[in-house]
């Protein structure tokens, strides 16, 4: 008889797609609200977006248990920062903290694929995009998660960003207006939902600008 | 790595108003090394019928030779060109003959049928046909292509608009795929003419 053994994996993939677009004075962060495992939908109304500070929002796909653990670490580190500095962390600082937090678990990683969006110290939109172990880059737009392969080429086509190798460095923010960027994000998700089974149900859009934070919703396909 | 990803490829076909377009990348690689940058994966069967073969390059060429042979026999016996629907069934049958040792390629067939009705279809390596009304994709860049086409395609485009759409979709897709790229081949076929254009893209 062949050797039988129980198998257990500490990881699962709950799917989901995140997109963030940075503009001159705004930032749009969006994610669908479906949470799946395998061919099953666990819930159609699970928010993947979390507000880390007044000017910083994170959207995460991957393994939602790890995401929650990660969010908890970031929240407690941010609370300590507020007590020590008597101010909220800036978005670029939060970007570095997220990278360090991910790399801290380099050999047992958080299975989470994050995009961080917000406004920097000058009030300009910023997007940071990550891999699971903390390699990150400041970009003008990004997409992460199960639908990223479908969305990224379309964003490239619509927003073509300058090479990060150019000297002098060029600004990566998109030339679109806030409402145009929101429409673009909606189009992206409508397309991705057609072909990606892990994306759908509802789209949650968070918009950051000088006035503060605003939340929008759009229905997506539920099949 | 899958044998389907050994050479790298990107293929797409789109339907327009009384016309269609079929496009591919031009790279032939062996895994990550680029061997040729002027590779043809789209073949003309007759003036109104094209087939693109993604996947293992050696099998695409062998399959193409067999298809040309079978089409010539058909022409001799029937004294006419094959209809796209018939041709798709032929390809499907030839692929299924090798059910347990398949040709490692995923074909895309596009043609103009009776009264110039456009026909596009794709199939897997063992000949399961998938007919589509709008667009079909295959190759290593297929996921990117699905995303791009789903966002860019609209029904009933004219030949010029169709060319622009398929080119934009192809170029933006191959730039996110390591195994395909180096420009593109685009064929736009109308009832009266076939236009072949070569696209320059990112050469890296």
TrEMBL record, chain A:
GO terms for biological process: proteolysis involved in protein catabolic process. Its main location: cytoplasm. The keyword Isomerase does not apply. InterPro entries: Ntn_hydrolases_N, Proteasome_bsu_CS, Proteasome_sua/b, Proteasome_suB-type. It is found in: Cytoplasm; Nucleus. SUPFAM superfamilies: N-terminal nucleophile aminohydrolases (Ntn hydrolases). Keywords: Cytoplasm, Nucleus, Proteasome. It holds the Pfam family Proteasome. GO terms for cellular component: cytoplasm; nucleus; proteasome core complex. The keyword Cytoplasm applies. PROSITE patterns: PROTEASOME_BETA_1 (PS00854), PROTEASOME_BETA_2 (PS51476). It comes from the Eukaryota. Component of the proteasome, a multicatalytic proteinase complex which is characterized by its ability to cleave peptides with Arg, Phe, Tyr, Leu, and Glu adjacent to the leaving group at neutral or slightly basic pH. The proteasome has an ATP-dependent proteolytic activity. Component of the proteasome complex. Belongs to the peptidase T1B family. This is Proteasome subunit beta.
From TrEMBL, chain B:
One of its GO terms (cellular component) is cytoplasm. Gene3D superfamilies: Glutamine Phosphoribosylpyrophosphate, subunit 1, domain 1 (3.60.20.10). Keywords: Cytoplasm, Nucleus, Proteasome. It comes from the Eukaryota. InterPro entries: Ntn_hydrolases_N, Proteasome_beta_3, Proteasome_bsu_CS, Proteasome_sua/b, Proteasome_suB-type. GO terms for biological process: proteasome-mediated ubiquitin-dependent protein catabolic process. Its main location: cytoplasm. Pfam families: Proteasome. Non-catalytic component of the proteasome, a multicatalytic proteinase complex which is characterized by its ability to cleave peptides with Arg, Phe, Tyr, Leu, and Glu adjacent to the leaving group at neutral or slightly basic pH. The proteasome has an ATP-dependent proteolytic activity. Component of the proteasome complex. This is Proteasome subunit beta. The lineage of its organism: Eukaryota, Viridiplantae, Streptophyta, Embryophyta, Tracheophyta.
């Amino acid at each position: 008889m062949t050797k039988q053994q129980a198998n257990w994996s500490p990881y699962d993939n709950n799917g989901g797609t995140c997109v963030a677009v940075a503009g001159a004075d705004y930032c749009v962060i969006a994610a669908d609200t479906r949470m799946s495992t395998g061919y099953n939908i666990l819930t159609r109304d699970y928010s993947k977006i979390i507000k880390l500070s007044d000017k910083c929002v994170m959207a995460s796909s991957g393994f939602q248990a790890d995401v929650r653990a990660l969010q908890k670490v970031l929240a407690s580190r941010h609370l300590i920062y507020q007590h020590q500095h008597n101010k909220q962390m800036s978005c670029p600082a939060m970007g570095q903290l997220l990278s360090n937090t991910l790399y801290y678990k380099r050999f047992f990683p958080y299975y989470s694929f994050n995009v961080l969006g917000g406004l920097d110290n000058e009030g300009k939109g910023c997007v940071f995009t990550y891999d699971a172990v903390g390699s990150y880059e400041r970009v003008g737009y990004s997409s992460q998660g199960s639908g990223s392969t479908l969305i990224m080429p379309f964003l490239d086509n619509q927003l073509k960003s300058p090479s990060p190798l150019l000297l002098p460095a060029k600004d990566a923010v998109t030339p679109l207006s806030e409402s145009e960027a929101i429409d673009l994000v909606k189009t992206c998700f409508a397309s991705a939902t057609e072909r990606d089974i892990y994306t759908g149900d509802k789209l949650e859009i968070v918009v950051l600008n000088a006035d503060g934070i605003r939340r929008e919703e759009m229905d997506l396909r539920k099949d | 790595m899958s044998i389907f990803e050994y050479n790298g490829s990107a293929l797409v076909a789109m339907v327009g108003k009384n016309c269609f377009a079929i496009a591919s990348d031009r790279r032939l690689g062996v895994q990550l090394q680029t061997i040729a940058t002027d590779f043809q994966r789209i073949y003309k069967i007759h003036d109104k019928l094209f087939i693109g073969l993604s996947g293992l390059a050696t099998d695409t060429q062998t399959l193409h030779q067999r298809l040309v042979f079978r089409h010539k026999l058909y022409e001799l016996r029937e004294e006419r060109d094959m209809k796209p629907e018939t041709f798709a069934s032929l390809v499907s049958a030839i692929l299924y003959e090798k059910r347990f040792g398949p040709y490692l390629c995923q074909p895309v067939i596009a043609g103009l049928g009776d009264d110039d009705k456009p026909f596009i279809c794709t199939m897997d390596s063992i000949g399961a046909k998938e007919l589509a009304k709008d667009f079909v994709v295959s190759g290593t860049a297929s996921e990117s292509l699905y995303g791009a086409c789903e966002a860019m395609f609209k029904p009933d485009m004219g030949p010029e608009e169709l060319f622009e759409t398929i080119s934009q979709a192809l170029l933006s897709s191959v730039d996110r795929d390591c195994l395909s790229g180096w420009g593109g081949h685009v064929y736009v076929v109308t009832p009266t003419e076939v236009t072949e254009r070569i696209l320059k893209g990112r050469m890296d």
